[in-house]
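Long-time lurker. I teach an intro course on protein structure, and each term I like to show students one example going from raw sequence to a predicted 3D structure in token notation. This year I'd like something fresh instead of my usual example. Would anyone be willing to generate the tokens for the chain below so I can use it in lecture? Attribution to the forum is fine with me.
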Amino acid sequence: MPSPSTVANAYASLARLGDTAAPKLPGDSPAGPSFGTLLKDTMGSLNKTARNTDAQTVALANGKSNLIDVVTAVAETEVAIDTLVSVRDRVIQSYEEIMKMPI
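-- Reply from a regular --
Happy to contribute to a lecture. Here you go:
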């Protein structure tokens, strides 16, 4: 089971993705990072979490790590992947809804 801090970090990442509160006019300059930048940062964070899990697993195999640390790292990776999959599913669902709109 993931720790509360892991879940809080995952939801904070999602909140950053949704921080585009006010609609922008064509002439306005963007107030925050673009969706592509947020997506790139989120993927980088997921990659970092996965590498940490790999490092903890190797350390456990070498007898230099605790099993609890490995389980925690795996749970953090699982939460990050689940979060990313949820965002992906929502983006696909939104795209499908836009494609169904009449012209």
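Some talking points for your students: Helices lie at 4-17, 35-61, 67-100. The two ends are 47 Å apart (CA to CA).
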